[in-house]
Amino acid sequence: MSSDAAGMRVTVWGENAHEQRDESVRAIYPDGMHETIARGLRAHLHPTAVVRTATLDQPSCGLDAATLEETDVLTWWGHIAHDRVDDAVVDAVCERVHRGMGLVVLHSGHWSKVFKKLMGTSCNLRWRSAEDRETVWTVDPAHPIAEGVPDGFVIESQEMYGEFFDIPRPDELVFISSFSGGEVFRSGSCFHRGYGRIFYFSPGDQEFPVYHHAVVQRVIANGVLWARRDSGVRASRYELERKDLGWLDAAGGQP
Amino acid sequence: MSSDAAGMRVTVWGENAHEQRDESVRAIYPDGMHETIARGLRAHLHPTAVVRTATLDQPSCGLDAATLEETDVLTWWGHIAHDRVDDAVVDAVCERVHRGMGLVVLHSGHWSKVFKKLMGTSCNLRWRSAEDRETVWTVDPAHPIAEGVPDGFVIESQEMYGEFFDIPRPDELVFISSFSGGEVFRSGSCFHRGYGRIFYFSPGDQEFPVYHHAVVQRVIANGVLWARRDSGVRASRYELERKDLGWLDAAGGQP
Amino acid sequence: MSSDAAGMRVTVWGENAHEQRDESVRAIYPDGMHETIARGLRAHLHPTAVVRTATLDQPSCGLDAATLEETDVLTWWGHIAHDRVDDAVVDAVCERVHRGMGLVVLHSGHWSKVFKKLMGTSCNLRWRSAEDRETVWTVDPAHPIAEGVPDGFVIESQEMYGEFFDIPRPDELVFISSFSGGEVFRSGSCFHRGYGRIFYFSPGDQEFPVYHHAVVQRVIANGVLWARRDSGVRASRYELERKDLGWLDAAGGQP
Amino acid sequence: MSSDAAGMRVTVWGENAHEQRDESVRAIYPDGMHETIARGLRAHLHPTAVVRTATLDQPSCGLDAATLEETDVLTWWGHIAHDRVDDAVVDAVCERVHRGMGLVVLHSGHWSKVFKKLMGTSCNLRWRSAEDRETVWTVDPAHPIAEGVPDGFVIESQEMYGEFFDIPRPDELVFISSFSGGEVFRSGSCFHRGYGRIFYFSPGDQEFPVYHHAVVQRVIANGVLWARRDSGVRASRYELERKDLGWLDAAGGQP
Questions:
Q1: Is the pLDDT of residue A252 over 90?
Q2: Residue A85 contacts residue A44 (beta carbons within 8 Å)
Q3: CB-based contact (8 Å) between B55 and chain C?
Q4: pLDDT tens digit string along A111-160?
Q5: Which residue in chain D is spatially nearest to B197 when comparing CA positions?
Q6: How near does any CA of chain D get to the CA of A163, in Å?
Q7: How far is B186 from chain A (nearest CA, A)?
Q8: Contacts of A245 (CB under 8 A, 6+ apart)
Q9: Exposed end of chain A (fewer CB within 10 Å): N or C?
Q10: Residue C176, min C-alpha distance to chain B (Å)
Q11: Which subunits have 3 or more CB–CB pairs within 8 Å of chain A?
Q12: Is the CB of D196 inside 8 Å of chain B's CB atoms?
């Protein structure tokens, strides 16, 4: 458990749609994928960290203003209901990321409105759901998200996500995966947007028990720790500002 | 003149609003800023390159489908009329960048709908219009856009753009500027989006004769050359694709 | 004070040559620059962190094997005696960085054997010692090293370091400075080498009281915190390894 | 054929040791690997480009001062005789890269003195010579080196190179490979050092006919084109320079 996480407030957002519809998914995640993800985080973070869940079927898609204001890091899993997330919620989440909230986007969250808006790209990729074997490799062992993670690890059964993955060049590339069909994927990548940090991690799917995998849980916890700002989320986002000559001195040399 | 530009088709887009309204701007740019920028490009590119202009007051904001389809690289200058650019035009420009069209965004174009959508950030900054002296420094002399550009050069009178500039971390940072007030700015930066390349260059303003500056013209020409794909703009953008196991072999090993 | 620093072992290495020779330097740093830097770190790090100093005039240049083995993060300041650092010490420091020791290189340390070897470039720059005013700007406010640091801050009297600074493109660029003469400098930049993290910070000089500056002390402390691996320095560096087919499974799926 | 290559002077350096010793290698590369590589380049570059070869067994390791001075881009393949390259030649090659010569490092050249010195890391990796199937994927289709290269392509029989590959974070990552054993490798990556550009491309081995592969030849040609500076190699490298206040104006605003 990390002392960095003392007092941290994490919200695990889950679409919670497959779980209502597909017996196969309920068999793997009887309490919902969000609960499994949340449980993994609670095991890795500090006892004083608070990990709650929120789901699409709740009022304001589970992310009303009060909930967002109490969230230091948000994790996001969605798949078949991206379009049902209100644009106002999308805007509020992006605005809070710009103010410094950490965001961890998981698997099919690559196609969420939130992620596509923050990336500025299509976030398209190649895919196949056919029980591929995925091997995840650490390519930046000096990165905080790689702490305690082996050089490589296997996920026996998994959906394939393959390149080209249409994202901006990652600020930091931590993991690359291969699949049974020979495909590769930049599976762990970091981005900065405004005052906020974003980690995308592709392993994880509703049809496979990936979120029960011990190393996957560790990586997600590391991502949450990395994405959190020690100095907290700012009260307002950065704005366009006119500054007269001499403003810096007028501000005592420290704006 | 560069042989790389043979047959290249460039469209210089200008908002052309200050020129209609402000005598001070007409005095510096009697034919419009777009014409000055286009003239600079014609002087640097290959004789067979075609440099045309397009302006906001034309039908489809000057960028109908046919014009876009005939454009290898688009340059963009806007300032007071960003909101008057139709969203459909914004979408078409971004879609064509994703397919491989080069985009060179100039100065106040940092706040255009097109640039903000492609960046995924606010693109806010600090600014002052008070005849600052700007010094532009090359920080990546190995970059193609720095070819033939001095280590540093002075623009005697200029609007100040200062950090924090809220953009994603540039894929490649080529120039950094300082100003009379001590501010700094990442003034030349490169981004990849899909199959397209984007160069942002901040020097240039309607109230100062910056686009008549010989080195500024050279940098913009270098940016246009860098942003152009030799293999042309693709017919369609990259899409989400399901790929069955064995698809790569079925495609003869080269999808 | 940061809980991240609990139990951290920092060694502040100082050349300690100007202090023996120049009255002007002793007037500013009566106990040596290394002591001032160490004091600043002690004020910012956790009470259980141990901050010691080491100097060139000590046996093994102050960095014998035992000292290095007990160092999680090393800070480096040198100027007129780079050549007097034994190559064996240089190799040992670089090898430990590759194994995960953090390294914070300060000011004229840009020309140390250690930094040049880790960068693979000349690390040359432009300079002037003429009481310039330096303004340091944060260009990546989401970076851990920028936590609690203002958007910009002034150092009233300082040596000028100007671009082009011949380093590899930084993995992460946190600060950019401007000077009275209009020069700019990438003053805070991050690199990964093997399992180790390196932070270079240029403010600081023997003729100016820069290491007494509160914000400078905060940045250096942030750099030390960022450079430290939670999982510690590894016992051995990464080696070239032959791996037969199936090695990953033989290793239980986690090498 | 690219007009960019008009008049370009390329030197293909080959260790030429396996070819003298191993019948198996001669069977694949009867004229030496360097000749195969050179032939591929001649087919892709402009008719006026001059592609010569140089080998370790020649005087000055094939790279005397005159040869280097007439080289715009150097390609490098070595494997079992890295230590036999004179340090003076290594220094001369690195110095010329710093002045702007392009460098394309191939396969086992990752362990050459030249590459390790320019990287500042161990350049270690995992490997296996067991007829793996390698699939190379384009992860930055907007990059010049990816022009005309398919999204992915297969090399049927190849040595495995696997992560962690101990290099600095690449400035630009163009290709990632997977192997039969599930390993991945950053197989095409770009670096800037001083005024020079470096491209590392891992496919290619003495025991497999990889340099006869049409797409591999195209990628190497693209790498050579990308690495060449239009403005040529500079007469001297960048040096540490003292600059008095006002030097920029004294230089007419353009140093």
A1: no
A2: no
A3: no
A4: 999 999 999 999 999 999 999 999 999 999 999 999 999 999 999 999 99
A5: D142
A6: 6
A7: 15
A8: B128, B130, B132, B180, B181
A9: N
A10: 7
A11: B, C, D
A12: yes
- Are D93 and D68 in contact, with CB atoms under 8 Å apart? yes
The Cα of B60 is separated from the nearest Cα of chain C by a number of Å equal to 37
Cβ distance A229 to C142 less than 8 Å, yes or no, reads: yes
Neighbours of C214 (CB within 10 A): 11
pTM beyond cutoff 0.90:
yes
Chain B hits for A113, CB-CB cut-off 8 Å, are none
| Shortest CA gap B26–chain D (Å) | 27
- Interface contacts A/C by beta carbons within 8 Å: 77
Does residue D81 contact residue D108 with C-beta atoms inside 8 Å?
Answer: no
Per-residue confidence (pLDDT) for residue C252, from 0 to 100: 79
Asked if A151 and A135 count as a contact pair (C-beta separation under 8 A), the reply is no
Q: List CB contacts of A93: < 8 A, sequence separation 6 or more.
A: A63, A68, A74, A101, A103, A114
What 3-state class would DSSP assign to C55? Answer: strand
Domain architecture of chain D: domains with CATH: 3-121+186-235 (3.40.50.880)
- Chosen from D178, D179, D185 to mutate, greatest number of chain A CBs within 10 A: D178
C26: its two tokens: 């002793």
**Tens digit of each residue's pLDDT (9 = 90 or more) over D176-228:** 999 999 999 999 999 999 999 999 999 998 999 999 999 999 999 999 999 99
B171 touches chain D (CB under 8 A): yes
Q: Does A173 touch chain D (CB under 8 A)?
A: yes
Residue from the list B3, B153, B196 with its beta carbon closest to the beta carbon of D3: B3
Residues of chain C with C-beta less than 8 angstroms from the C-beta of B150: none
- Show the 3-state SS of chain D: CCHHHCCCEEEEEECCCHHHHCHHHHHHCCCCHHHHHHHHHHHHCCCCCEEEEEECCCHHHHCCHHHHHCCCEEEEECCCCHHHCCHHHHHHHHHHHHHCCEEEEEHHHHHCHHHHHHHCCCCCCEEEEEEEEEEEEECCCCCHHHCCCCCEEEEEEEEEEECCCCCCCCCEEEEEEECCCCCEEEEEEEEEECCEEEEEECCCECCECHHHCHHHHHHHHHHHHHHCCCCCCCCCCCCCEECCCCHHHHCCCCC
Residues with pLDDT less than 50, chain B: none
**Cα(B63)–Cα(B56) distance, rounded to whole angstroms?**
8
Report d(CA D113, CA D117) in Å as an integer: 6
Decide: helix, strand or coil at residue C137.
Answer: strand
Q: CA D184, D188, D189, D192: dihedral to nearest 10 degrees?
A: 160
CA–CA gap between residue D8 and residue D74 (Å, rounded): 11
> Does D79 contact B at CB distance below 8 Å?
no
The residue of chain B with its CA nearest to that of C150 is B164
